[in-house]
Structure formats: C-alpha cells, structure tokens
C-alpha cells in the first residue's frame, strides 16, 4: 500500500486525468479551473495558495443567515420589493391598526375599479353609479336606514306620490298654515251671475313666504243635489261655460285643475276619497283636490289659486265656496 497522503491519479481511456485517490478516498476532478478564496477573488489552485475547506465556507454562510433571522426563524426582508407585473397570492395584509391609522380596505375588480368596501369586518358591495353615505362632519360611513341628528348624516331624500300619481311635497320648515277661501274682493260666495262678465275668485301668494298648497275644497249646500240629469247644484245644466279652476304657480306657470259643468264633475275633480255627498233636508256635497304641496305659490309674485264663475249660478244652492289650505314655508 502507498504511504498516507500519497496521491494516485486516475485516467480515462483517452489518457485524461479524471480523479485522484487521497487517503483511500476517490475524488473526481471538476471542470472548473478556478475557485474563490476567502476574499472572494478567483484563484488558480495550480499557482496560488491553498483552498479553504468547504465546511469553513458553509459555516461562514450559516453564521450570516443566523444574523438575519427573527425569533420565529423567518428571513427578514428590509428592502422594498421592486415593482412588477406579476400577481402576489396569499400574502397577509397585516393587522389593521386602530382609529385613524386603520387600513383603507376596499375591493377592486380586474380593471382596478372599486366594487366594494369592508366595514367592521363586513363586505359591502358598491352599486352601479351608487354612492355610500358618508357623514360630512365626522367622515364616518353611516347606515342609510338611520335618521341622524347631524345634517347630512343618515338622511334620505324621497319623493312621495298620492294615489293619483301626483307628487306629495312637504315644506322644509312650516312657519304657519294659511287657510282661506278664494275671494272676489272680500266675498267668498261663488253663487253669482258670471254669464255676462266672468267673476274671478282668488287665493293669492304671500308677500314674504312661499305657500305650499295642500288642498283645494269645494262645498255646495242645496235643497236638492241631483245626479244623472246634468244638474249643477239645484239648477238645470250642464253649464254652458263652466266653473274654471286654475293654479298659477312657480312664479307664473298656469295650469287648469278643473272645468266643472255639472255635479258629476265635482266627483272627477276630487282626489281619491275626497268626495262626499250627504242627503238631508238640505243636501251637502264636498269635493277635495289634495295636492300635498305639489302646487307652490312663490312669495311676492302674482301666483294664485283662481276659480272663475262663467255662468249664472246664483240660484244653484244656498252655499257654494272654495276653501284652500296652504303652508307658509322657508327654504332649509
């Protein structure tokens, strides 16, 4: 046997050196001719120095890795990740901080559009062209079904309609109720002769406040109110020209509310449930048109509710007047 540390060289069939035998162990020669020394420089082992052992190098690497581990053995990354186009999957966002330092949590689609928000661990889906209510005072999101005491917080704006489809409007603030008859001068009785010269009766706008008209009501009392024979009150009809009911609103827009020629027309004029007929020693008929605030008389203008008598109806009954209910309002 050769003495210890004597190197035997192994050759392949072409005479190329392929390995050595050292202390009884076979070492295969690598194709690389240069390796790194401890300073990181490449050296030629045939001409320069000695090689450090692999174990020494590995030990140095382990020492460096141990220095950058945290207590859980997870490698720390202190530098910001570079920007890229690849998606990152299943990465924890971290614990959300409290109050003002909280994460802004929202959901986005593949195009980057926000499609929902996360509030108190609940996912809320954003509607198409919708908005999420936000209190302008506190900046907090609010439930839309909650009535807030702060202006703009948790309040909904809605338009209501009556049974006939007319909008029901409510004044923001009502200072008082204006109740009055339509009048010709100081006279509220519609039992006049308007066959030659029509006689107009009006309920006028207020000088200071807008009026939100709620109801227009006719009341007729006669010894006999007849239906089915074209009567107007107790007189034979129908009327030639009729009882014209108009509203001039919104600073000058005039609309016709009714053109009454016979008793049946009062039924048609009334809102659902707004007609009443009482038979007694003197019959009474009433017809109410409920606008619910849909007619607005602007303050200081010529806006009005007007009833024009265009026929001779002075003997149609013992009582015929038109009563108007309105709210005096201010803008919120």
The percent range for strand residues is: 25-35%
Structural class: mainly beta
Question: What name does the CATH topology of the largest domain carry?
Answer: Jelly Rolls
Could you name the CATH class of the largest domain? Mainly Beta
Number of strands: 19
Q: Mean pLDDT, nearest integer? A: 77
**Do you know the CATH architecture of the largest domain?**
Sandwich
Number of domains: 3
What's the order of the H and E elements? EEEEEHEEEEEEEEEEHEEEE
Low-confidence blocks of residues? none
Count of runs of 4 or more consecutive helical residues:
2
Tell me the span between the first and last alpha carbons.
Answer: 113 Å
Q: In which order are the strands of the major sheet placed?
A: 11-19-13-17-16
Approximate shape: rod-shaped
Largest sheet, if any?
Answer: 5 strands, antiparallel
How much is the radius of gyration in Å?
A: 48 Å
Helix content: under 10%
Properties at a glance:
about 325 residues, mainly beta, Jelly Rolls, 3 domains, four-stranded antiparallel beta sheet
List the helices and strands and how they pair.
Layout: E1 8-11, E2 17-22, E3 25-28, E4 35-36, E5 42-43, H1 54-67, E6 106-108, E7 114-119, E8 122-125, E9 160-161, E10 167-168, E11 173-181, E12 199-204, E13 210-222, E14 243-249, E15 253-260, H2 263-269, E16 275-278, E17 283-297, E18 304-309, E19 319-330
Antiparallel strand pairs: 1-2, 2-3, 4-5, 6-7, 7-8, 9-10, 11-19, 12-18, 13-17, 13-19, 14-15, 14-18, 16-17
